[in-house]
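Subject: Interface between my chains keeps coming out wrong

I've been trying for a while to get a sensible model of this assembly. When I model each chain on its own everything looks fine, but I need the whole thing in one frame so I can look at the contacts. Pasting all components below, labels as-is. Any help appreciated, I'm running out of ideas.
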Amino acid sequence: MKKQVLVDMDGVLADVYSQFIDFEYRKTGVRKNIESLNGILESEAFPLHDEYVNSVGFFRNAPLIADSVEGLKYLNEKYKVLIVSSATEFPRSLLEKHEWLQEFFPFITWQQMIFCGKKDSIKGNIMIDDHPKNLDFFDGRRILFTQPHNALVENELNERVNNWKEIIELL
Amino acid sequence: MKKQVLVDMDGVLADVYSQFIDFEYRKTGVRKNIESLNGILESEAFPLHDEYVNSVGFFRNAPLIADSVEGLKYLNEKYKVLIVSSATEFPRSLLEKHEWLQEFFPFITWQQMIFCGKKDSIKGNIMIDDHPKNLDFFDGRRILFTQPHNALVENELNERVNNWKEIIELL
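Reply #2:
Try treating it as a single job with all components included. I did that and got this:
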């Protein structure tokens, strides 16, 4: 029986930091340096966070995280993969995330997509997520995908990976 | 600790049969009698099923199932309620379902919404659904909400309710 792996979208498949930095630059003329954002929550790093994520195209046009297509393809052959994404807080994101997945990850079927508010009611054996608040409620193997906001998080219950190559080595 | 109740949308909160019958009438001029549809899957009863559910407004304008607002309010005070809806097969439904819930059930928060493909990875103690295929994979208490397509289903593992008044009496 294949193990079930729950894979997050934002910050694991989709490079939302690039979007935040681009949207902020277009809005304010200031381009933040990603290295300066370590240890700062996204909503604090970008005060107009909610405006950006509610904008047309924020999720639909997000760039891919490096090696995420090859990495997810690998996981999808070896495990039972579910894409679990927080989306109901920002309803516009729902269709955009669905279309984005279909474009870049056509091997992921609609049966493998879950768009939710909280992730603590989703069953799985392994969770890959950049948000400690999601991993904290998970009773399986917890894999923290490095993003600036979690750079300073230390929790021995999490295994940290810095990129998709490390996921493939680990799993 | 409150028990967690998973509540389906289509056929439990939203009267999709009314929509199917109306859409069919507008398309073909024939108005099907709901009594004639007992024991027939929705996709067989309405050959243009997929065209209808992909139409603008199919979910957004669905009427309420009788007493569902009062019933869900009752459950939401007594239990931990999650709305779990199959939606990713028909991506247009995602935003429509979200808006519909916000309009008619404003006491349900975005944290309580799950839009998925399959429901077999959602944790709960009680599931209320009109589709036996969803209840069959559920390891908690299974409540089958009567709709024409399930009228002939007999399964002693399910408790059958015919309306929201019966749900309130039962739970």
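Reply #3:
Confirming on my end. Chain A has a mean pLDDT of 97.
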